[in-house]
């Protein structure tokens, strides 16, 4: 009887080892098919319930690679901290300046930060110096990131940086600031939503002039594994060559950019 239980115990232990090995290999295979990405919760680029215009580019790129994105949304800036500090995070998107030593990165998008003012102003800013005496709001770090802004902000009547870009639209629509410095797509998205809530036609951003007084800001996609980064980069080239990226950019342009009068 003792030998029987001994043999049975050995068999059960062997079965458990096989089961553990199968579970481990299945989990590893699942991990190989996914990519954990830290992304900023920054409407309309990335949205809590999906559907962000930049998220669509990420999904299309990874689909070309046969990878499933596992997107972790966090406040802008904190998503980069997660990439640097959390071993489970394999990549990060919408990184304005790739940290030194990152194994792989490539530019996959760009933003047009602009000076946005009410259209009925008598003077339209053509240079940053034209903002002297104005009340200006922008996003955190703008004075450091955007060329020339740090040098002239001392001439503004007031200058504040607010992370919640919904507040930018509210402030200028309420007349509490004279100018917003922000990406025009993000400003348009929030302003049109606020306009629609106020009973307007959903094109409230059409009340504003947009002056592109800064060079485009490039967004990097960064990776901890250089081989994975190179693979995803190649897939990005593929969706650009086959027209998928162009279709996504055109959908974005129709959704937001068409409201502006050049």
From TrEMBL:
<keyword id="KW-0732">Signal</keyword>
<feature type="signal peptide">
    <location>
        <begin position="1"/>
        <end position="30"/>
    </location>
</feature>
<protein>
    <recommendedName>
        <fullName>Solute-binding protein family 3/N-terminal domain-containing protein</fullName>
    </recommendedName>
</protein>
């Amino acid at each position: 009887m003792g030998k029987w239980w001994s043999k049975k115990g050995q068999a059960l232990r062997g079965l458990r080892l096989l089961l553990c090995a199968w579970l481990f290999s299945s989990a590893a295979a699942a991990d190989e098919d996914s990519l954990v990405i830290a992304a900023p919760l920054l409407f309309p680029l990335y949205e809590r319930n999906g559907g962000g215009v930049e998220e669509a580019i990420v999904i299309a790129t990874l689909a070309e690679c046969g990878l499933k994105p596992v997107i972790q949304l966090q406040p802008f800036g904190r998503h980069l901290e997660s990439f640097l500090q959390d071993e489970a995070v394999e990549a990060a998107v919408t990184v304005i300046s790739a940290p030194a030593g990152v194994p792989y990165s490539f530019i996959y998008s760009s933003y047009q930060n602009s000076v946005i003012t009410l259209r009925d102003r008598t003077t339209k800013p053509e240079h940053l110096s034209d903002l002297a005496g104005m009340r200006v709001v922008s996003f955190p770090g703008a004075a450091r990131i955007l060329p020339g802004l740090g040098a002239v902000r001392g001439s503004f009547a007031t200058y504040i940086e607010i992370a919640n870009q919904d507040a930018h639209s509210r402030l200028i629509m309420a007349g509490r600031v004279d100018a917003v410095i922000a990406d025009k797509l993000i400003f348009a998205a929030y302003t049109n939503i606020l306009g629609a809530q106020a009973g307007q036609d959903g094109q409230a951003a059409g009340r504003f002039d947009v002056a592109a007084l800064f060079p485009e800001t490039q967004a990097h996609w960064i990776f901890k594994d250089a081989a994975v980064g190179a693979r995803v980069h190649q897939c990005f080239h593929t969706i650009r060559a086959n027209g998928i990226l162009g279709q996504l950019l055109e959908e974005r342009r129709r959704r937001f950019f068409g409201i502006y009068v050049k």
